[in-house]
Amino acid sequence: MPDSSPVKRTPQGKARAKAVIDFIERLTVPSGTGQGRPFKLDAFQKLFIRAIYEPHIGANRAVRRAILSIARKNGKTALIAAIVLAHLVGPEAIVHGEIYSAANDRDQAGIVFKFARQIVDLEPELAAEIEVIPSTKTMIGRRTGSVYRAVSAEAGTKHGYLPSLVIYDELAQAKNRELYDVLDTSFGARQEPLFIIISTQSNDPEHVLSKLIDDGLSGVDPSIVCHLYAADEDCDLDDESQWEKANPALGKFRDREDLATAIRKAQRMPAEEPKVRNLFLNQRVAPVASLISRAEWMACNDDAALQDGEEVYLALDLSSVVDLTALLVGSVSDPCRIAPYFWKPREHLNEHSNRDFGASSRRYQEWAEAGHLLISPGRTIDPEAIALFIAGLTQRYRVKGLAYDRWRINDLLREFDRIGLQAYQDGDKGDGLRLVPWGQGFKDMGPAIDAVELAIIERKLLHPNNPILNWNMANAVATMDPAGNRKLDKDKARFRIDGAVALAMLLGLRSRDRTTTKPVDIEALIG
């Protein structure tokens, strides 16, 4: 069947890609491996360049965004600098082009500029064509009037730019998406805009880079290219075939012994392992080991919904009056289908987005707009709103029990009394909602964490891919006492873990009830 897509790898595109490759390979390596010799692009670098410049729609390049995600020390700085020069004075140069290499801080921005300047200094032909202004990390192409500048998130406003090319170095390390968004929305009327990102992966599944990689790998948009080099998430550290997956330059300009040394250190010192997996194996893992790996958690993603009238458990992690409150609903039957609910005070959305995700972030506002986050009016979370919501759940489902952290629970109990919701403490006799206090120490949380792990590993948990719960689970870190019991540690977690706490309480209560109410097999007892 003939290909009906307007995107083609045309002879014109192939000639463009070859011209870029030929230009780069005529440059001289200024420092590091291969210093003083011509650039020799590796196969993975040529593949990336061809993927960008070969596809065309008519006479124009089809690719508008390209992502190369690789482990550290695989030559990304050299590749960025070389592509910059190809657009400044090489085969991709246009009249009055604006080229930016973006980084998260001034020092990082200066590295790419310094490398590009060293290349220019080694090539008399380039030096004659380019004016270098070190004070502003700027280069100007004399023939075309094109400008290259290294910019960072620290350098004030970027509004007013009209880039033809942006290359973002290590987007994974960006504390917020302000610089990315400003550059991404500034291409304007450029005929062939191009945004290239070269970075290790972020450990945050909600980070802008994680979203871009996931979107790029989907293959839905032919204007996006994404090449991801990463080890399998559950691989052994000493599996050298996995090293090569994340380090395509291994044994060439990526030193094998340097990587092996880092791996051996991580094997001796478990605290080093998450960092090594993220930076050197390019895995999407947090610098501190999460309770549950992302691969295991996402394998339980399912949209199976709870049904009105079925038996469920509830678990509530009340926040301080200004922070995130989490309530989870989970089915009694297997697999446990859960529905998460979260609250934040309206007047703290902006402040807490900046606090938790970096300056100018709108993460909590975006979650609220998407329906993932419920908003409590004012500056505090109103316990009445939580009480009324729980009362509604008791009308919708047959609730077997509500597990709760004792923190601030008296405020909620007063609201139960005020709205007329009958409730009683576990162990007492009473009618209405059974309330089960759940300690946050090793005694209660140890079995609860075991229940979470077992449900996920055995795929007996189904979650609806709620981004807040996903974020909380990625942040969850457990500590262990000398006896091997575990609890969730909010102090060691980088960000909020309220949803993970609620999930542990819910599955812990569910497991405890099953153990205490398990029917006795009389025939087995009497033999």
TrEMBL record:
Domain named Terminase large subunit-like ATPase: residues: 44-204
Superkingdom of the organism of origin: Bacteria
GO molecular function, one term: endonuclease activity
Terminase large subunit-like endonuclease domain sequence ranges: 226-508
Signal peptide range: none
Pfam family, one: TerL_ATPase
Record-given protein name: Terminase large subunit
